[in-house]
């Protein structure tokens, strides 16, 4: 039987998103080797290997192949944005509930996926002009180049919106620590017991006062003394349960926050590095092509993690069935 890693890689390479990540990694490597040809010369032990001349056309073909894979992805982006907006619109109209359920990150996600839809739509729209077939070219070389630049602008804005949305989630993850209840049952999970005193009419008040007056003072003193006695062992046990409960809640909250912040931090770092790619094309960032290739390769690995884990879960489910 084949190994789990082999089956996971097959599932990853067969997935459209996973295949696109593989091609993106290869495209990043071609950019790195084109910027630093000495690496290829050192690996092949040749001062001027002929493969260097093929890196440029190979990078273009890889980019075009990735565009074909992403041809309809813009529909998914628009659909996600629409679903998020409709879910917010159909949320409860109460201001308190709306403030709890809808935050800044939700609106930033709507903006992000809308911009990603525009980016992907422009890329798909100009794809026929990039095939090199004059009969199906519609926009022409100059307008196609301008539309692709505008697409990069939308991508950069989408990445920025995603970074701010995830930063908001990180801040909320640290801010919303579990707050224990106060009063009776503090930290134990028990609900406070509410005392209810129902007084009906002045006659009942007078009757209660008269009955209290008939009780001997000594009896009152005995009852008061019994009420003031403390069971120290029970109190110590109760306090210990409170401390242990709060420690467990705190540890569980820290574990949940650590996992969430780690995932969000990876996305923030990946999206921030990806901003270099459209930034260079737009002329807003001045870095070397090799730096862009390295950033592209790193973000490819980081963004492939979720797809890799999803494929691993699929393989595990298939093996267990």
From TrEMBL:
Signal peptide: none annotated. InterPro entries: PEX11. This is AoPex11B. GO terms for cellular component: peroxisomal membrane. Keywords: Membrane, Peroxisome, Peroxisome biogenesis. It comes from the Eukaryota. Its main location: membrane. It is found in: Peroxisome membrane. It holds the Pfam family PEX11. PANTHER family: MICROBODY (PEROXISOME) PROLIFERATION PROTEIN PEROXIN 11B (EUROFUNG), PEROXISOMAL BIOGENESIS FACTOR 11. It comes from Colletotrichum melonis.
